[in-house]
Amino acid sequence: MPDELTAIDPLGRTIYLPAADYSTDDNAIGVLDDVTAVIKRPAVVIEVKENEKTEYYYFRSVGWNKALLIITHLHNGRWEAYRHVWNPTAEMMSNVLGRGKQVIYTV
Questions:
Q1: Is-above-0.90 flag for pTM?
Q2: Strands (E), the chain
Q3: Residues 6+ apart with CB under 8 A from 93
Q4: Counting Cβ atoms within 10 Å, is residue 97 exposed (0-12), middle (13-18) or buried (19+)?
């Protein structure tokens, strides 16, 4: 598996996916496929600006009964996915939406 992969989001940004961050999952290649799918074709993208830092949250369902939230930030001059959350709670999504603004919404 390569050290890192990339995915281009609908806003044209290249998002780096350090493979080491996702290799702890039993099905690492499947997880990376899901992560890249969410970044390339999100249902919702939320921009959160706090303390002179900007993060983008990418959300989408993957499959019939799973949802995935990917969190990215600018690190060393490039956008990196640094966290993912399977099936985020409504409370978590409400918190993110309350702190940020929705920049993409698709159905």
A1: no
A2: 4-8, 14-18, 44-50, 53-61, 67-75, 78-86, 101-105
A3: 59, 69
A4: middle
Residues pairing with 53 in the sheet: 50
Residue 36 corresponds to which amino acid? T
CA distance 104 to 107: 10
pLDDT in tens, the chain (107 residues): 456 789 999 999 999 987 655 555 555 556 778 889 999 999 999 999 999 999 999 999 998 899 999 999 999 999 999 999 999 999 999 999 999 999 977 65
Domain positions in the chain are 4-105
